[in-house]
User: Fold these one by one.
Assistant:
Number 1:
Amino acid sequence: MNHALALPVGTTLDRFIHRKQEDFPYATGELSQLLRDIALAAKIVARDISKFDQDTVGQMGTENVQGEQQQKLDVIANIRFIRALRNGGEVCTIVSEEEEELIHTGNQHAKYIVAMDPVDGSSNIDVNIPVGTIFAVYRRLSEANADGTLEDCLQQGTQQVAAGYILYGASTMLVYSTGRGVNGFTYETSLGEFFLSHPDIKTPNMGSQYSCNEANVSSFPLGIQNYLAYCKSEKYSSRYIGSLVADFHRNLVKGGIYFYPGSTKNPGGKMRLLYECNPLAFLAEQAGGKATDGIERILDKQPKELHERCPLVIGSADMVDKVKKYMTL
Ligand code: AHM
Ligand code: MG
């Protein structure tokens, strides 16, 4: 029996994770602990973000591996998540948007790999607009009692054992899946707890909102330009926050589509396959939606590099299918 599906709104995240684990008689509790570690770091980062003071807002004056300006919170959140995963003990190796190389936690016995973007959309922090954390969890392929390997980290998205995001918005939310549907939890700051608020999220097959950076339209592939024209002819609404997690979350709940295709500025797209596209694609599919690079399924892609970019088209199934039609006309 799947206990978790029967759990009511208001169940604490901790209890939910515990009950989910009971559904797997041979589960060791390691993945459960890993999810708790992520939730702990999320609470700390939510606190840091809400401080909105000179220690947390503004640029760090350094660049990350992609040559992008690091915000103070990019650095702070990176440290928070790594520390929580290291101390929790269930993760041997981490891939982070903020670090060029693999991060080995020293937990060589641990069986999980995490790929994460600690703060996505961080250029929005200064103006008090929602940002997010995105994470993917894989089981290592290599033998335990050594650091995780590059091969452990370059697994196809289909191999994810869990994925999720934290949305730091008007409320902080943790939305995750272990491959049996998607559940969302809202953080109650005064109690310091995440509570189940969005059980078994199913995304509508069709929506009437699209999210993309339309300023780039002239350098989008022709199929995407034509799809955009179609959206306008259908009188869809344009909604672009410029924070992937926030745009994705809105579309997940209400129905809609987000796309960041290749463009002249970013020929291979902008989103990173390992810690942006794959985890959100996993969630989209678990909720009944779809994710492609315009044509091919994101989760089937074989990553070649840690920080590889990929065009992303994600959201309601019928809308993602429609893009493919325009791309292959
Ligand atoms: P980041 O990981 O450096 O924060 O970049 C990812 C962000 C997404 O959250 C957002 O959808 C996109 O970049 C916005 O890009 P643009 O300003 O080109 O529209
Ligand atoms: Mg990002």
Number 2:
Amino acid sequence: MSILNGLNSEQRKAAEKIDGPLLILAGAGSGKTRTVTYRIAHMVLEKGISPYKILAVTFTNKAAKEMRERVENLIGLEAKKVMVSTFHSFGVRLLRVYAAKLGYDANFNIYDADDQKKLVGRLMKELVVTNKQLTPASVVSKISKYKEDGDEPSDVAKEVYNADTRVVAAVYEKYAQELIKNNAMDFADLLLNTNKLLDDPEVLEKIQGRYEYVMVDEYQDTNNIQYQIITKIAKKHKNICVVGDEDQSIYGFRGANIRNILDFEKEYKDAMVVKLEQNYRSTQNILGAANSIIKLNTTSRGKNLWTEKEKGHLIEIFSASDGRAEADYILQEIIKGKNNGRSYKDYTVLYRTNAQSRVFEEAFLRHRISYKIFGGMQFYQRVEVKDILSYMRVINNPKDTVSLFRIINVPKRKIGAKTIEKIRDFADENEIIFFEAMGRIEETGLGSAVKVTVLRLYEMLKNIMEESQFLTASEIYDMILEGTNYMNYLTSYDEKFEARMDNVRELRTSIQEMEDSEQYEGFISVGEFLEQTALVAATDDLEEDTDYVKLMTIHNSKGLEFPIVFLVGMEDELFPSAKADFSDDDLEEERRLCYVAITRAEEKLHISHASERMVYGRISYMRDPSRFLKEIDDRYVDYINKAKVTPKKKESKLGGLNLITKADFKVDEKSPFKIGEKVTHKKFGTGIIKDVEAGKRLVIRFRDGDKKLPLVLAEKFLVKE
Ligand code: ATP
Ligand code: MG
């Protein structure tokens, strides 16, 4: 019996097509990822293809891990020999081997956004940038954009239009030089440099010879650089299988190019194209809702997804008075479910932006519901954790001045900016790296007290460096903590020092866990550990067996599936998000994001919105339900508050929850409010009704501007004069 019996006939056709180009283009939950996994198993087990020849690239580490596990379930240990990886970690592997070709050492460090900002900030100071509009963060984002577009500093310098761009170009040029000097790459470099390496005929031949079969999942979200990397590798054998769904392209804002997937057939004329139409994930109602939304996109080619599953629950739509009430509703649903035998892990809360997690976090904490937030402020980015990691980075790569400057005076050692400048000058004069200059501090003209401190730090680090080859990362961690007396320093850091100490301890645990894992069998070098932490993505440590509610952004939920989903904050200006320059394309990308969110749900989907919410520290009133909510075909939804309460009531029976019904979205000719009438609102004062917009909301001119107010809220908050 073939492994491929686990696939339907269309999926099977795709899995059996091993030679030549293949495109699997299909909607959410139709088994694209499953097909890729089975295809790999089939190739290795039933076609006798060496697993070493297969390269499978996915988008997140979590997806890569899952794919590896699934292949392992099918074919056992041979699966470990297949290169299943993200673009970034595949790139890092290649770059470590060939670093010298690009002027790097193999032990280069990887800079995150925060490191980038620090470095750019320093360079802006050096270049005496006076323009207040240009912040390190804004310059970093401009540089990243150039990098995504493949523009080198010299390209940018050529086409400078105005003073700002000239400044950015200058910073960019210095930044690129500094990275090499620091033996460090930022995230964009991991891809750019990989792509550059593949222009080297020797490297390209090696890689093409090694990976005869290339597969890419989530191909719709590849950017131009990723596209080039894949195209170069696959060029020789043309055994390239790409998988995706144009309706799930959600990274356009970061340079993903939907044309990569749409033009695949043009590029490979003999490509076989497989479309999958059966959805195995969701109920009919969920699928129907998803389809009714995505078909409104002009870029969508339309899908006929169907399922054998039952109709299932209607999508429950809940209208809350405010963000807290929304969280309470979700809390109650989870508690109810838990009492009926469900587990916390069946529930997932999806939101548009990371900042939305806080209110749910608080509610879950209050009720002792275990939860886990994916994304947001990453563990490895917290101040105290980053401090220790910076020590490790200096030990791994003494050229890294971003890390060295971060810790040179942490804990406080009275090494100030002047001292650093002196040491730097000395380093430049003698053409040595900063760290070595610290070792030759005697030769500088610095005062004797500071010389002693600098030398002490240098020697502590140097000692660890010399032994570091033989030390596992946890031993290095211990030496750092002891050598710096870091915990003691934390006690006087701020009032949150206990939580910070916990995080530092947690870092030790995470090293230990990696060390003990099958992959490392008791020894992980500091370099390997740092690489793991740098590449960690938001969804990485999603452990399936532990029982907690998951919270994440929709972007992070890509490719995943969950039994019960709460899609929260469905309000205009939050989702779709409020962008000043909102174009049709942006709106369509938001709509695809909504499609991704809905199609994560297997059994049940709850959607909620609130009419009042804290946004960036301010209360925003009279928020409109998202236009996407109204785009879902009525057949699939249930406005759950309808039966329980009439909209005219001022207080609902459910204490504090302001429940509104479907009727409130409809045109209401009998609106009690007329244009021109004078009304009073408790927050905004007196105003005049300017418009009764499509009967569903009022536009009122108050002293400080026009406000839009849904009718249902108007009845609650307005008093006629
Ligand atoms: P997405 O677009 O969200 O990435 P996808 O197309 O990759 O979705 P998968 O995640 O591969 O879809 O599959 C969705 C679910 O359906 C999985 O739980 C998978 O195991 C199941 N499934 C897919 N095909 C089959 C099949 N032929 N028989 C049984 N289950 C299947
Ligand atoms: Mg998938």
Number 3:
Amino acid sequence: MHERIHHRAFTDRLMSAEQAAEFIKPGMTVAMSGFTGAGYPKSVPGALAAQMERQHAAGKDFKINVLTGASTAPELDGVLAKAEGMNLRLPYMSDPELRRRINDGNMEYMDIHLSHVAQHAWFGFYGKIDVAIVEVVGVTAEGDLIPSSSVGNNKTWLEMADKIIIEVNSQQSAAMEGMHDIYYGTALPPHRKPIDLTTVRDRIGQQYMDVDVNKIVAVVETDAPDRLSPFAPVDETSEKIADHLLTFLDSEIRAGRLSEKLLPLQSGVGNIANAVLAGLSRGGYKGLTAYTEVIQDGMLELIKDGTIEFASATSFSLSSEGIEEFNRNVDHYRKRILLRAQEISNHPEIIRRLGCIALNGMIEADIYGNVNSTNVLGSHVMNGIGGSGDFARNGYLSVFMSPSTAKGGKISGIVPMASHVDHTEHDTMILITEQGLADLRGHSPKQRAQIVIDNCAHPEYRPMLQDYFDRACKESYGKHTPHLLGEALSWHERFRQTGDMRPAN
Ligand code: 0RQ
């Protein structure tokens, strides 16, 4: 028994998830491991949700604030949302139950750049952290923690929390030991020093996480896999988007702005980003690198076939097939993947230094290049900004991709004015839809608008956008970024009224 736990202080505190959950009281702020469905605690949140439901049935209030690395899974966000157990949740999330409650207005959600979370916690912006719940692969004889399939904010949670609950998950591959690089050099301003990371492979920290054993109140053994929904199969639309990107990258190489090894790739989450990665292996590249947040199935494929020779991230985000593939060829991947804390994987200083190529999905873009990644119709949050802002602002290139329409053509992905802005026109360089690619670099707003309309808009919406832009150029109050303010969001309002952005006639 306990073959994953080699330190007495930890075996002494072994208990059930139900007993561990007793340490969490109403109103507490609880920081948990987990990043894009990987490395989240599998059993204490469920036991906690059951206690919340019992309290609610007895007419008592039981809600907590939940901080994580990024999205988790039904066993964490899903159960706590169903139990109506959260006052506040931050940062990125993607659980449908949680999303519904946030959008119904029943709880608070704070959407924060992923690189900001740890430092904001240290700055005291989120108050005291009462309890941390962190999944690990095991505990060494020295009492160090072997990180799991994501690192996220775990180092920070372990350092800041008053009490710590550790989940030791025997389903997580023990072969991950040694694949992590945990940096302990971050300090608070004005005492910060440069971070000495100049290539994606650099190790700047240690392979284990430190923990103060005096703060550990419970250790729970679990045996459950990370649970991720499979990606949508690559379809014609995402293949076309990938082809436009490949053509563009080739032209950048020919123009001498990129070498054949490109620059470190960052790839966002979602079906489009996954499909684009799959497309890269068609591009004939070899020996590329990635400095990114998540290793998803598409990235694993690229590492397997040699397209990518080294990837730095903060988390895996694999479907069950992806997990099987990782476990089958773990020795190959061990030498080619490093997981870091998200404050390092997403650090603006490093992203700027390495010159990352940021590839992210979007909900909509407007004709000037402002990008909405988070809020449908300006109000209904989808997942959150995640790390897209960290990379888009600081990357060498920032690319946003989406089909030109959504919901069977009833919504245009290119609109007169974005109904919510996550990435401003100043951060967006390249927009891609299946229709084509808009290269916005070196162009003024009016020039950009014409390029976006000509290259990215769906043919059904292109004349409507052209008409709007032409009239705005004549009638707008100012002629620098022409807009007709009374009309700019009318497409969204029409969709709300009629279920279609296109006018009835
Ligand atoms: O909804 O499945 O209900 O039909 O949005 O859209 O086209 O499958 O695209 O999976 O790549 O996700 C922006 C959400 C795109 C993602 C977003 C609907 C569409 C569908 C998904 P249905 P697709 P993707 C680093 C990077 C922010 C975080 C980020 C995202 C669903 O890329 O969350 O980039 N990005 N992090 O129908 C209404 C529109 C729509 C729309 C799409 N205009 N209006 N619905 N949809 N466009 C990683 C991390 O940060 C962890």
